[in-house]
């Protein structure tokens, strides 16, 4: 009992990292689908804050 508690930070970090990568992929697809520059600029701003 109690073995494995040290792995939870790694699990949480991995899951959060995968969520960010997935959001970047979906945002990139949305960027390609956007028609005007205002929408693309808004998407790029959101992608920037995902990475930082």
UniProtKB/TrEMBL annotation:
It holds the Pfam family DmsC. One of its GO terms (molecular function) is dimethyl sulfoxide reductase activity. Coiled coil: none annotated. GO terms for cellular component: dimethyl sulfoxide reductase complex; plasma membrane. InterPro entries: DmsC (IPR007059). It comes from the Bacteria. GO terms for biological process: anaerobic electron transport chain. This is Putative dimethyl sulfoxide reductase, anchor subunit. The lineage of its organism: Bacteria, Pseudomonadati, Pseudomonadota, Gammaproteobacteria, Enterobacterales.
């Amino acid at each position: 009992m109690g073995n494995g508690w040290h792995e939870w930070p790694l699990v949480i970090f991995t899951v959060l990292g995968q969520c960010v990568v997935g959001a970047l992929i979906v945002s990139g697809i949305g960027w390609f689908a956007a028609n005007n520059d205002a929408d693309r600029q808004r998407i790029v701003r959101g992608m920037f804050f995902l990475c930082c």
